[in-house]
TrEMBL record:
It comes from Kutzneria buriramensis. Residues 36-61 are annotated as: Disordered. PROSITE patterns: TAT. It comes from the Bacteria. This is Pectate lyase-like protein. Residues 42-51 have a biased composition (Pro residues). InterPro entries: Pectin_lyas_fold (IPR012334), Pectin_lyase_fold/virulence (IPR011050), SACTE_4363 (IPR059186), TAT_signal (IPR006311). Keywords: Signal. Residues 1-34 form the signal peptide.
Length: 599
């Protein structure tokens, strides 16, 4: 992702010059690689963490801070992690910075694969008075590739009165109690992110963000909009004014479970809190109330570290234990098999799973209440049927009382190796909640090309009553999202079609030119989605046309609200229609098309 947000012929991130010269996809260059600062010798990694007596051993890349650690030592560690990760877009470092209840007068900057979190049951328990920020300084204030970093469960009081959270995909800002203002861009281009379960007392300024989604939060005020700004269940959000300005606000979330999180209780015991399901709700799960949910002792988790085998993980899962996966990159020789209801697999520090031998990284049985959270799944070089699967084909059970969910779970095909999958995520079970995901066929980095990092679809939903909040899906080679289940709902969809189809004949969906970004099965009777954006830039062959961004049966129960399409790069390629044969075009003459309702 994503684009220069000027409203004129928009430019892409660092690959653009080569791409528009009709270079093959493999020539797409990450700006992080091209950045002169990135050519400097890598800084020394921070010293490995060591657990204190009474604390679990979470491995060398999880730093646990409390009031006994001198402020200068905390700041030095935080700064060392940032120096290591600032330019490491496709690096191997993974880090978590955890703060026990207390106050910390420090400044935190997050680089790639960095996860900052408080360890209280309430966000107010662990406070940072200073700053907790993502800036654009790694790439000249351009934050289009500020991926893979997140903050959660903290009380942040910016010393200046304002923090900056200038990010794009695969990021999260959760359970934050911010006493101050928040900027979402840093003076240059930015491409969209995710806020959930936050209370932000000041003004949020979206700046150049081309899209953004905020869920179940409380805002002081909001200013700014560009293409697609969506609020769901958010108090004090702007009202729907799409298309001018392009803001969409849905008063309540129909069903949601917040992300599980690690905390330390008043007795010093480590636990994982699994929030309860909430229905038809606005605002946070915690403000002025005790969070509802279940605490699971850390002893009920297998703590996965370097050297833990897949056999050990599967034995733990089969015995009814949970997995806490510490920061690192883990190759899986076989699938992780989740067969017990209410299983939690929680990753810290963007823990990364790579399935080998064509395995499905995480294969979930058709059971109640499974929670996957905080994970990056990267495709291996042997094609997997899927990277994550909920339920076998034909799953029929009703999980409405206790739905499964995935939170901040991201997929990557290509970027560090020529990964291959048939589909990224397949949901066969009913009632699954998808809460912030970026499913990305890489457009730059290593192992990138039309025949190198191959994957057909991004998300395939066959189950009924599945709901998605914050659905980012990009560059897959066929349909990005294929929704076949009944009563599906999506709140915010962001997509880019693949940059690199070789020609029109090589990118056809039967009689249709190109594949849709979001397709609802012909048999589906009920489906509804709010805030959808799909963009194209066909860099190898700009004459390519996608006939429609959204393909859906035309019937009253299948409805779409607030849609845009955009032909990027000044119209390098064409999306002929927004939905079916309605709306559009987005092309060299008219880059942006907007459609308020369909039908």
């Amino acid at each position: 992702m994503s684009t220069e947000n000027t409203g004129r012929g928009l430019a892409r991130r660092g690959f653009l010059g080569a791409a528009l010269a009709a270079a093959p996809a493999v020539a797409f260059v990450s700006q992080a690689v091209a950045d002169p600062a990135a050519a400097d010798p890598a800084p020394a990694p921070p010293p490995p963490s060591r657990p204190k007596p009474g604390d679990p051993d979470l491995g060398p890349n999880v730093y646990v801070f409390d009031g006994s650690v001198p402020k200068a030592q905390i700041q030095a560690t935080v700064d060392a992690v940032y120096a290591q990760q600032q330019h490491a877009e496709f690096g191997s470092g993974r880090y978590a910075l955890l703060f026990k209840p207390g106050g910390y007068g420090i400044d935190v900057k997050l680089g790639y694969y960095t996860h900052v979190a408080g360890l209280g049951l309430q966000p107010s328990a662990a406070g940072i008075t200073g700053s907790c920020q993502v800036l654009g300084e790694a790439h000249g204030n351009n934050t289009l590739i500020n991926f893979w970093r997140g903050a959660e469960n903290l009380n942040i009081v910016p010393r200046s009165g304002q923090d900056t959270w200038a990010v794009s995909q695969a990021t999260f800002y959760r359970r934050i109690y911010l006493l101050g203002d928040l900027k979402l861009s840093d003076g240059s281009w930015s491409s969209g992110g995710y806020i959930a379960d936050c209370q932000l007392t000041g003004q949020i300024n979206s700046g150049t963000q081309q899209q953004w989604v905020t869920r179940n939060s409380v805002l002081g005020s909001w200013v700014g909009s560009n293409w697609n700004i969506v609020f769901v269940g958010t108090a004090n959000a702007p009202a729907t004014t799409f298309p001018t300005p392009p803001v969409t606000s849905v008063p309540k979330s129909p069903v949601i479970r917040e992300k599980p999180f690690l905390y330390v209780d008043a007795a010093g015991a480590w636990q994982v809190f699994v929030p309860a399901v909430r229905r038809d709700v606005q605002a946070t799960s915690w403000e002025a109330q005790k969070p509802a949910g279940t605490s699971i002792p850390i002893a009920d988790f297998l703590i996965v570290k370097a050297g833990t085998t897949v056999a050990e993980m599967n034995a733990a899962l089969a015995a009814g234990k949970h997995l806490l996966i510490t920061p690192g990159i883990y190759h899986l020789s076989e699938s992780l098999k989740v067969t017990k209801p209410d299983t939690v697999i929680l990753g810290l520090g963007y823990a990364t799973l790579i399935p080998d031998n064509g395995a499905i990284a995480i294969d979930v049985a058709d059971v109640d209440g499974v929670n996957l959270a905080g994970l990056l799944i990267e495709a291996g070089t042997t094609q997997s049927e899927a990277l994550i699967r909920f339920g076998p084909a034909g799953s029929k059970r009703d999980h409405s009382a206790n739905p499964s969910s995935m939170h901040d779970v991201f997929a990557r095909i290509g970027g560090t190796l020529a990964g291959k999958a048939k589909q990224s995520v397949v949901v066969n079970s009913n009632n699954v909640i998808i809460d912030n995901t970026w499913l990305w066929r890489a457009d730059h980095g290593d192992g990138v090309g039309w025949t190198d990092n191959t994957v057909d679809q991004g998300l395939v939903v066959n189950g009924d009553d599945v709901v998605a909040y914050g659905l980012f899906v990009e560059h897959h080679q066929k349909t990005q999202v294929q929704w076949n289940g009944e009563n599906g709902r999506t709140y915010f969809f962001q997509n880019e079609m693949p940059y690199d189809p070789p020609n029109q004949a090589g990118w056809m969906d039967g009689p249709h030119r190109g594949f849709p970004a979001y397709a609802v099965g012909d048999h589906v009777r009920r489906h509804e989605a709010w805030g959808l954006g799909s963009y194209c830039i066909f860099a190898v062959d700009p004459t390519i046309v996608a006939d429609r961004a959204i393909a859906a049966p035309q019937r009253p129960g299948v409805r779409f609200h607030s849609m845009i399409t955009f032909a990027l790069g000044g119209g390098t390629g064409t999306i002929a229609h927004v939905v079916n044969t309605t709306g559009g075009p987005s092309d060299k003459t008219t880059n942006l098309a907007m459609l308020t309702q369909y039908p």
